[in-house]
Amino acid sequence: MQSRLSKLTFFVCIAACLLSSLVTLPARAQNAETYKATLVVRVDQPKWPINRNIYGQFAEHLGRLVYEGLWVGENSPIPNTRGLRNDAVSALKELHIPVLRWPGGCFADEYHWRDGIGPRDKRPRRPNNSWGGVDTNAFGTHEFLDLCEMLGADAYVNGNVGSGTPQEMMDWIEYMTSDTDSDLANQRRRNGREKPWKIPYFAVGNETWGCGGNMRPEYYADVYRQYATFIKNHSGNRIQKLAVGGYDQNYNWTEVLMAQAAKYMDGLSLHYYTLPTGDWGKKGSATQFDEKEWHSTLARTLRMDEYIQRHSAIMDKYDPQKRVGLMVDEWGAWYDKEPGRDMGALYQQNTLRDAIVAGINLNIFHKHAIRVKMANIAQMVNVLQAMVLTDKEKMVVTPTYYVFKMYRVHQGATMMPVDLSTPEYKLGDSVVPALSVSASRDSAGRLHLSLINLDPNHAAEISASVSSGSIKNASGEVLTATTMNAMNTFEQPNAVKPAAFSSYKLQGSQLSLSVPAKSVVVLELATN
Ligand code: AHR
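Above: the input record for the complex with alpha-L-arabinofuranose. Below: its predicted structure, written as tokens.
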């Protein structure tokens, strides 16, 4: 009885907490041009740090991501530094990428690191069995870690469990990180790298429930424990060991992994992709969609919130101290292949809808940053929801890129809860909140607010305040466009880009904001 009562109290509290942070008002009249919302930033209730790694990226040997998108080779007419194209690297540097995952994905479980070291003209050419084509292995360990150093990003190396051995994994780590006089450390030196690299994150396989070996969770839990034992720390390097987690609503995987192996891991992954239709056979187009598909895409991306909550609740049972991170190391929008493009290349254009998807997910990660310690959007260049698209010597940055750039201010800042009262954005039977908002305070005391208007037809008139003190000034940027599927192309690279945000008024301690339909706004607020 007592436990029933405490369960009831628990659920009432959860419901009250949810209600206190987000109140959805009924959908406003369809013919109104704007809708009203109110927002209070609870500066009196600072929460957890937003781990910088939530802004991580992912680069797999897939399609034109590594080859052409990043690696063009030293003899290419495309300007490059040690074979890595300058335009992409310099655009990506702007994002302050904290961590980069490589070499897969599914590809990780067929990758043998020894193929990708030593003189490039001697490296074997291997079929890419996951995504098609032949991999020349010109881009291997040294090239990846050179890229990380250029970007200022930490390396997240994904080990091979599906077709590799613990010995191969152990040797790779020694090769990369040992400063001793061992044969492997000396081989690295002969291959041009004197000093060892730091490898802070190493994963034991990828999607071992699928492409990584079709394992059952009980089996993988033991495999994980075995392989993780041979991930060794050399010469002061400290590796966080990451285990393969579940996907979407695959809660049993999380339950079993946490029960059987939590104490051997520092992180457990979660993969969730947003498909407009939810149907892998007919996902929906990246660029040709109507409002119904706009709405269903946003409704489906919002499911990330529930998935994280429920996977975290399971993790809490085994790890109440929240030591083990939930690493959402694959997320983003996944559409049908573009006509005329290779099936395995997963190349897709990126529109304003993707910018909204990115902002919504980043806001969700902030909300759960006490458990979510890393997230890696799939993928960085030319694949799925990319930051950068290339076509031979041409390069363009996407609307998603700009969201990551605008959101840099949240990296490492402290999450501030918000009390948001917003109408719904309703289409047919499907309902989502019209606004998504997140706030944080950085180490210099600056308060930042990111606001997303999901409604493609109505601007939001928001009355904003802080729970103590008053707002003295605001400045920031807005990303929007006239159409839902606006995009940057090689012909029109600046169709979607941020502009200074000026639609606000200060009235006493209140800030009145007019957030355009289908937009992402990031503001810095000066308060006292
Ligand atoms: O990101 C593309 C693929 O999606 C990855 O290789 C795999 O892990 C996932 O299924």
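Notes for the reader.
Residues 102 and 168 are 17 Å apart (CA to CA).
DSSP finds eleven helices and 27 strands in the chain.
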